Amino acid sequence: MSDLPRILHLGAFNTAGVPFDFVRMHRRFGFDARLVTLHRLALDFPEDVCLNVPLPTGRLARAWRRSKRDRKETRTPTAIEPTHLPVYSPANRLEALWFRWQDHQRAPTVERAVATLGLDDFDIIHLDGGLDLYRDARLVRRWKAMGKRIVTCYYGSDLRLRGIDPTIDRLADLHLTVEHDHTLRHPDIHYLFLPFDLDELPAPIPRPETDRPLRLI
């Protein structure tokens, strides 16, 4: 049996396939790594374990998400400033109740996955997007009490608009990002490159017959 730590990735989505690319990278170097996501994207990115938790997609749900995004951009004009770090929290009591209801609804599915997949046995919990599978961070709080190492990893607009979950941010042992501007927003975050598989890249473009240097953009 390998002495390497076991790595569990958790995320709402396998966003652009990046979380699963991290898992494939870990596996290539001999780590036992898994990815568990809540929802499946319409785009056909490879999944490991998707819980297929229903995500409201009706007109009202889409309007609510759009208004929430617009509200953040309007009420927080500094969101585009590179040093601003939002803190994630429900916008009002109604939204807080909705989040509690979501946690209640998904709990049987999540806890079944924890039991059947042995998620309590992993050593490092890597939170893709910086969030728990529950809104109230109950898994992170439990695993931290069990001595697990907690890692957050942020992509895209995670820190620009949504921001950190204060409970998870406090409990995490390491904060990572693949975005340079996040290093200015968060006081204790570390940049790392996106993993990618060279075998999946197109064939090399022939070098032009010129002495001018080849410029990569």
Describe the structure.
The protein has 217 residues and is α/β, with parallel strands linked by helices. It contains 7 helices and 7 strands. A 7-stranded parallel sheet has the order 3-2-1-4-5-6-7. The longest helix is centred in the middle third of the chain and has 24 residues. The model has no long low-confidence stretch (mean pLDDT 88).
Task: Write a short abstract of this structure.
The chain is 35% helix and 13% strand.
Present the secondary structure layout:
Layout: E1 7-11, H1 18-28, E2 33-37, E3 49-50, H2 59-75, H3 93-116, E4 124-128, H4 138-145, E5 149-154, H5 158-162, H6 166-171, E6 174-177, H7 182-185, E7 190-191
Parallel strand pairs: 1-2, 1-4, 2-3, 4-5, 5-6, 6-7
The arrangement of helices and strands along the chain is EHEEHHEHEHHEHE
Strand order of the largest sheet: 3-2-1-4-5-6-7
Quaternary structure = single chain
Q: Could you tell me how far the N terminus lies from the C terminus, measured between alpha carbons in angstroms?
A: 44 Å
Largest sheet composition: 7 strands, parallel
Number of strands: 7
Determine Rg (CA atoms, Å).
19 Å
Determine the strand fraction and express it as a percent band.
5-15%
Helix content: 25-40%
Q: Mean pLDDT, as a whole number?
A: 88
Number of helices: 7
**Are there runs of 5+ residues with pLDDT below 50, and where?**
none
Look at the helices and sheets and give the structural class. Answer: alpha/beta
What is the global morphology? globular
List keywords for this structure.
217 residues; alpha/beta; 7 helices; 7 strands
